[in-house]
Amino acid sequence: MGKIGYMLFNLKSVLKTTTVTLFCWMFVAATSAKIPKQVGIYPLDCNETFSCPDSLKPRVAFWVEVFSRWDTNTAIFHDKDNPHRVYSTVKRREGCRRSKKGDSIDRERQRIKKNLARLAAKLKNKNALNNTEKQYHELFKDESVREIERASERVRCQSGNRDRMRKALSQFMTYRPVILDALEKQSLTPELQYLPFVESAFDPQALSHVGAAGLWQIMPSTGRTLGLTVNNKVDQRYDPNAATYAAAQYFRNSVDNLTETAFENGLTVVNKDLNPFVITSYNYGVRGMERAIKQVGLDYERLLSEYKSPSFQIAVKNFYASFLAARHVAKNSTAFFGEIEHDKSNNITSYNTVKLTRATSAKRISQQTNVDKTVLKRLNPALKNVIWRHKALIPKDFELKLPYRETGWSVAMDAVYNLPVEKEKPGFLWHRVRSGQTACGIAERYNASCRALLRLNKLNRKSTIYVGKRIKVPTNNGGISIAKVKSKSTANPIVPDLKASTSVPKKTESMRRYRVRSGDTACSIAEQFGMKCNELLALNGLTRESIIRTGQRLTVTSKNSWHTVRSGQTACGIAEVYRVKCSLLLDANRLSRRDTIRVGQRLRIPTQRY
After folding, report:
1. pLDDT digit string (tens) for 153-203?
2. Which domains does the chain have, with CATH numbers?
3. H or E element: which one contains 29?
């Protein structure tokens, strides 16, 4: 068994880097299950904003060391009600996570329980204690034998968090400006900026096992009530900016509601008493804290010791203490971790926002704007993976972020909108359950994966499906396709004109002249001949503001035979418009993929379609 080592911070170096006098032990290695050196004492920064009752300080100290002393592959065994009472630490790759009966976590818990029971029995019988039992007894100064017996049933495992905290500190400065702005707009204390250390460790992609997501770990229903879009395509909980302003709104609502509840119950409201309840409400809910205030008042010590509710369990009881601990470590990060290098990989300094006027695929936007999909994904974290896997369209009215360009993106987006409409094909079909059918039997009938069917319908292998119920059966033909364009008959036939104007390109067999008739517009003429309006305008040297007159002759082309390049277009993007392979279009125009096409250049469109 290896030894447990500790390193004492040099007090002089600490004083050089922080105004807070800090004296702490930092955990270096733990490869045994011996009783570690116990939790230290920390000078917490408690003031008129947050109260720190003396009874709470040992609990906070435990969480300070969870954030700063033990890493995530350390399992810490401690007393559930008195977290600072640490029995042992065990190295395990997953810490306390994914534990099951009979594994190292379970065996260590049972060992501690037996040792405590043995200690209680020896004390009761006044027998001599061995060295290990003496160490355990030191943890229960002035406690009764009955308390030791009870403690044997309260052994809990907690994973360390030091490495996650270090990484979170490197991300902190990226999100801090928008957090402070959101809190200021709601007239809230800036101290709330430290809560994401507890919630997500400043990971905007974090997802909990209960479905809380994003930087602020917001539940889906809560997100919707706060104005966030949460559906199968867009989830703004993953957008740090949107989620931050929503979280600030939650805290504003919590402060207002809990203040009103306190007044209604004849209580005097001061920030340091109210804020512990506000912080706890983020984990327990505002209504839960309203019930607690009615029962114990604005007394946080009484809340921990007297408030009873089936849902008021260990995670809720530790939430405020863990917040105070994370806040303390973050404010004194140099003392705990040394200099932290700011991770700038997620910094987005500037961007343009474009509101989509129709549903569009991410692939098409990437092609027409020449913006790599990974950049689009980083700029638009609210879009779900179904968008990036090209299985669904970005919905209409979504405010898409694009890399900043001084001239904006209107020309490129016009090119996107001039392409044929895209449509979604569902990746499933409906089946109505008949008597005797099972989920996997239905999947087999359609040659589909049973696991995929269960996942699609949010079922598990123990779920019951009922006769008459409609369930989704996954298929392989889902995704995005180009909507078919109905061919339109030409109301006015093409009239050959042998007197070609010198103001237009040299006429080819596919180009014709059309005499403008009363009521015609440039765009209606373009539509008659299967042309894009902008193409007809460019071909004739016109703009949207140009006026055409009856009798005027315009150059038109046979349907889809030529195309005049517009700003922002690419050869392959033009090929997609006409539903031809890019390689065929390049060959028809003697181009390669490396060649540059220019605005106004005319490209021959091959007749072969796909």
Report:
1. 999 999 999 999 999 999 999 999 999 999 999 999 999 999 999 999 999
2. 5-38+73-159 (no CATH), 163-337 (1.10.530.10), 351-416 (no CATH), 427-477 (3.10.350.10), 511-604 (3.10.350.10)
3. strand 25-29
